[in-house]
Amino acid sequence: MPVEIEVDPGEVGFDAARLRRIDRHFAQYVEAGELPGWLVLVARGGKIAHLATHGMRDVESGAPVRPDTLFRIYSMTKPITSTAIMMLHEEGAFELTDPVSDFIPSFADLRVYTGGTARAPQTRPAGEEMRIWHLLTHTSGLTYAFHYLHPVDELYRRAGFEYGMAADLDLAGCCDEWASLPLLFDPGTAWNYSVATDVLGRIVEVASGQTLDEFFRTRIFEPLGMTDTGFAVDRADADRLATLYVADPQGRARRHPRHDEAFEAAFELPKALSGGGGLFSSANDYHRFTQMLLRRGELDGARLLGSRTVDYMTRNHLPGGADLETLALGAFSEAANAGKGFGLGFSVLEDPVAGKVLGSAGEFAWGGLASTAFWVDPAEDLTVLFLTQLMPSSTHPIRSQLHQLVYQALVD
């Protein structure tokens, strides 16, 4: 279902002319060949006040981005998985302090990297068990193969995780393989963006007795009316799927070199369901997900989470109340680190001044590898969504620029 504008901007505190600055600014990226196309959605008070598209979902064929275009949302899958985990937590399936090994036995007796090379790593026993809250906060000691910053990252690549999940393993097999590799640090002592949310997806399966796609569909997507979101795209919707682009050394968008493979793979349920980055979605669907979060767990009579649970998830859970600037190892993340903590599945803005960007304390957010982004600002009753398909997300400062352009348009 395509989205549409629901309220005059002035009725919810926006200056319509100032909102159009968003469109003019990001249109420049398309005209310069630096983005293929994009969609932006701004809602306040639960009503969409600004919706715009520009450019192409497929540059080569000239097919434009439309309100019903389907996008690979990559790590914007993570907040959905975190929601699933917390739904099970609310049912008493586990405590946040429970060891991961209670659900995935291979995570017992973990080891931590201490030196050496990827070919000959030196390790010691972990000084702390990995617990569920470590996974939710990315303080688990796990990593991603694409970081290229640490010998353990290389070990992940050698194990077949260069492009996400290993091709020959299901989710349970991927988790067992990750458990066999050294951790970067003792759980709870640092922050590193990682496959932790994929491990959470496996815990959802074990705790619920459902596959991850079944849990998402029956417990989240159907109750929220998210009809376009899943781990695969229906072939009947092939013409709605945006093409994936990558940035060349000059920052210009080029069709992904594995486009044909990625396009065909989109129509088949993957062997390993990635709760960290495997979903496709649309603006309408993800807007409904953000509205559920803004309304503290409920939308149109469907309650997924208790209000206090959402409040708890969107507080900073980093040890000692540290921000990401202090605790992160310097690896890639979907957020600038200054002034931001991390909750149970979201970055949490605590100090907009430290972050040097317009925003509100208490805003929570995340993004995806193909430059997608969203945030929820309870203080302003605001949600914002930006969808495009350019890898990596660090190519352009889209997220910080979108912040300044949205907030300057608020005039009430």
UniProtKB/TrEMBL annotation:
The Beta-lactamase-related domain, residue ranges: 22-403
Superkingdom, taxonomy of origin: Bacteria
Matches recorded under Pfam families: Beta-lactamase
Protein name (record): Beta-lactamase family protein
Organism: Saccharopolyspora hirsuta
Organism taxonomic ancestry: Bacteria, Bacillati, Actinomycetota, Actinomycetes, Pseudonocardiales
